[in-house]
Amino acid sequence: MRVLIFADGGRDIGMGHAVRMKLLAGAIKNNCSITFYTNKEAFSYLSSDQWEVIIKPVKGQKEFIVREINRQAPDLLIFDLLDMPCDWLEEIKKHSSARIVLFEEKREHVIHLCDAVINGIYGGLKSRTVQMGGAVVYEGPEYIILHPGFEKAKQLYQLRKECRTILVSLGGSDPKKLVFKVMEACRRIPDIQRKRVIIVMGGAAPHADDVRAHLTQMPYAEMVRQTNDMAALLSRADMAVVSGGITLYETICTGVPCIVLSQVEHQTETAEKFAARGAAVHLGLGECISADVLARHMSDMAADYPMRSGLHQNGKPLVDGRGIKRAAAILYDL
């Protein structure tokens, strides 16, 4: 099957789209011939000897995409783009009979132009399948695309009574630079010297070197840059401070109790859903929270095993880590 995947990433929009599509490509590569189309910022991340990666032009993208579709004659088109333009799809359908799949799309007039929409994040925490015109919409955490390692990590993770290790991960680019606020909060936790803090920085975060410099004054902390095994890092943690994107789903899936600092408004919706089920502590938009308030919440969670245990137990049923298998099966069945 000939597959073209369109996904961007970078400092301003984050790396979630690119991360999700790279994982999905890895799951289907043995049965498909894949070409990625992306922006300059995500090119190096998506590059692989398993598929071709082409940088889209900044201007004239619609015309470029139509030309490429005519040249490549794909069977399947996958779009994971922020606010996919409706007129692109209308033009594409004039030139191609390829099946079209969108990720994280809730605009009905756009959905009606597709064959399937996979919304792992949009919708509630109870997964469902809905027919909208000629498209099938798959919603909920059952369809969230995570690294295959999380399914095993979920089975093996055991919550310790003593909180020894705190993991911090604020997305691929950390656009609000919340990591500095978390580091300041750590300094204000009375017994922080007795703990280990692991700070995970994504490859699109331009301030990683500044973070590393600050860590010289935090001997209890270490920085990991652009990890390929987040499941292993989370498996070491007794609690976490995360943003409200894909990292939140990874954390809930593994079973790690967490505090959520949302980077942008739409992340607050996701985080509130988990908080309402007693699976996370959501403090709202991270830029609006003081280091003192964050330090108090971190200190309270670290000291309160019953609280951490409750978050762990409440989150376990919500994300099973098998979404990537379900998404691949949907593509094969189209």
UniProtKB/TrEMBL annotation:
GO terms for molecular function: glycosyltransferase activity. It is an enzyme of class 2 (transferase). Its EC number is 2.4.1.227. InterPro entries: Glyco_trans_1. Keywords: Glycosyltransferase, Membrane, Transferase. Pfam families: Glycos_transf_1. The keyword Membrane applies. Residues 161-315 form the Glycosyl transferase family domain. PANTHER family: GLYCOSYLTRANSFERASE, UDP-N-ACETYLGLUCOSAMINE--N-ACETYLMURAMYL-(PENTAPEPTIDE) PYROPHOSPHORYL-UNDECAPRENOL N-ACETYLGLUCOSAMINE TRANSFERASE 1. This is UDP-N-acetylglucosamine--N-acetylmuramyl-(Pentapeptide) pyrophosphoryl-undecaprenol N-acetylglucosamine transferase. It comes from Bacillus velezensis. The lineage of its organism: Bacteria, Bacillati, Bacillota, Bacilli, Bacillales.
